[in-house]
Each structure stands twice: as structure tokens, then as C-alpha cells.
Predict the structure.
Amino acid sequence: MSDIHGDYSSFYNMLVKINFSSFDKLFILGDVVDKGPDNLCLLGFIRSMPNIFLIKGNHEYLFERYLQGTVSAELWDACGGSITRKEAEGLTEEKKADMFQYLRSLPVYEIVTVGGNEYFLTHSGYNADYDVFHSGMGLIDIKESVDQAVKADQERYLFSNDIHYIPAVLKFDKKIIVGHYPTFLIPGHKMYSIFYGEKFFDIDTGNERRDEGGRLACLRLDDGKEFYI
């Protein structure tokens, strides 16, 4: 899943729909907070589950930086963080420090192998300024490229939309799955459904735009089945 944006109700309904159990693993590709009503409740539930793995999105990054004191309330609010910020203001200083360390420690990607296929799971996908090619293969090493991009400027990577504008000649060494960019905005797709491109999948089907037809998506990698709430 990706881009749940504080919508605990839809998230819970999705877990019921997919029959999520202790035998499953769920990867969430960032942006579980902001824009929705139940941000800390959702984040707390995710933290409590040993088989749910959260990848950092740009909204977790903004939360982290706000707690650090390097992002202002005005900037976070302008990016949709006002409800999360107000929830966070009710935390004790000890819990704020704990939350900061948790957000800071979130990975920016996970690599999983399912059914013999290797997937690179991340929020934004790619920063075009950091192309690292495998020697003699003509393929971009997406892990090394992202590592270098994040080391240079994590913020720019997490906010990047570059993967949606890559030249046709570029090929990656893994199938990339992203969120961050609502699929309705992808030219030629224009639907609130999972986008399957030659180089990447996008599973952000606009849950924060439910009044416009957006919904929450879940992609089961075992068999490619799609679920929507």
C-alpha cells in the first residue's frame, strides 16, 4: 500500500478485505500521515505490528523535520500537515523525542523477492541526477542510485517525480514500485487505479482525493491481485 494519509478507517477496512494475518508481510510505501484525520493512531498501529514495514515518504520526512525544528509549522501546514501537527503538539516531550527517532530511522526503500521477481519498493522512485550504471550492462543500479541520491539530498529524493519523466532508453535492474504521485495524474492513464509501466508500478491511487474518486489500493505481489477500498 501507499499514501494512506491518515485514513485509519479505510486502512483497517483494507486489512479486513485482504484477510491480513500474521503470516503476511505488508509494505507501506510512505505518506501514512497528513491530510487525513487519524495520523498518530494510524502510525501507532503500524509501529505495533511486527509484520508491517513502513518506508519513509515525504510527509514522514516533514514530520521528522518539524520535530527536529528545521521545518516550520507554516510550511508543514501548507503541505497538508496541520492535523498531524496538532496531534503531535499533544505529545509529551519524551514521546516527541521517541517519534523523531522512529521517523528518522525509517528506510527509504526495501528490496523484496516474491515468486522469483525482485522488487524495489520506495516512495518517489528516482532522482535523475544520480544514475549509477552496472558495468557493461547498460542498466541503472537503482539501489546504488538511490543510496547516492539520499546521501546527497534526502529531501529532494523523497519529493522527486523524476521517475515519471525518464527517457525511454533508460532501463533499471529491478522492477520499481512507488507511490507519491497519484495515478490519475499520469498521462495516458488518468484513472484512480494501479499503474503498470514498463519500468515501474505506481500504487498511489489518490486516497486523499476520495471526494474526487480516489481510493486506497493494495497490490498483492504473490499473484498480482489488486484490492481497492
